[in-house]
Amino acid sequence: MPQSVPPPNFEKVVAALFEQEGWQIIAAPSDSKEYDIELKRNDECIAVQLKNHRAKVHAGQLERFIDFLEQPDAARFTKGFLISASGFTPSAFTYMRTEEVVDVALGSFRHDRLVWEEGDSPPPPPRPDVTYIGVFTCKGGVGKTTISAHLAGAFALNGYDVMLIDLDRQSNLRKLLGDGVYIPSPRGKLGATITVLNYDEWQEEEYPDTRIVICDCSPEYDANPEEFIKKFKYCLIPTTLNPLGINKNADVIQRTFKAIRRTNTDAELFVLINNYHSEENRRNEVLNDILKTEFKAMMADDPRCHYIDPEAVAVRFSKQLLYWGYHIVENGKPQLAFREVGGRSLPRQDFLKLLDYLEHHTQLETVKSVKAK
Ligand SMILES: Nc1ncnc2c1ncn2[C@@H]1O[C@H](COP(=O)(O)OP(=O)(O)OP(=O)(O)O)[C@@H](O)[C@H]1O
Ligand SMILES: [Mg+2]
Which of 10, 221, 282, 371 has minimal CB crowding within 10 Å? Predict the structure, then answer.
């Protein structure tokens, strides 16, 4: 959402502010994409990246800046400042807290002043609509249940209560999460709940505070109650990026589009790559191009069908997601696969980025739930 018109001479204005505070200003080389200004004072050397956009800076842009600071080329920097002319998304703040980022500070440029962000995002204005998000592919085992639950987890991390509805007769969500889970806030604030219900238990009027309903669908289209499919405003369609599956998957996606359109002509449909191996750069590029071309033709007829480019957002393959549900074997407490390995959680990063993507490409932000109570 635009906040204000960014100043045209942003870099100069910001540099002048730092200069007043006694920093030595060194302009970045003209071919540098990753930072704009270098600041020096005593032993400190700081890379400043400026985002002079009308859109808020999202978690993916923050992650990229952190990645840059971890490169050998950036070893001389003691810290990074990411400065935005339009603020940051809720997921960007959550990313800072959950990944415990300490070597990057976020600054917002407001009313000619630089304000250091404390990590709190202002709550969006409450709106009365309930937004239904379906997760559906006409194929078993592509990650529908995993994605439904962890997308709900990303909403909860950002402080929003979510309803997760199990439309699948296998009742996997119920097995994995029981009646629901509480997701504590990463920094001692009040957390949020994910409530799991079977479709016949859900009555909108009984949950007046719920604004987000995520539905985990059965791969068998006709097994999903029609009244739910009709309500989907957005639908995520998980698929994979592997050569043998590509033609087959393009066909599966086409069938999925057609199936949904039989009942719902308005929903925005998003194809999302799951089980993504991000380290396979070259192969991903080739396969992604093939898949994109296949989808382009399909989407030409239906402007509400979208392909989420996995280079922007995908759900990466991870052991945490592969073994999600191990708690059932151990009779443990229901939980999501957001547990950290070496201080990081790939699933948590990916789902925060996915939520950011959806908020950016849909009306989601303005209809998001009232804050968890
Ligand atoms: N990104 C990932 N990385 C690793 N494993 C994954 C990932 N996504 C899903 N899995 C694993 O793949 C398997 C199938 O996932 P899931 O049950 O979510 O698929 P589904 O589409 O809901 O299946 P069904 O059609 O049976 O309902 C599970 O064992 C899950 O742990
Ligand atoms: Mg499932």
Answer: 282
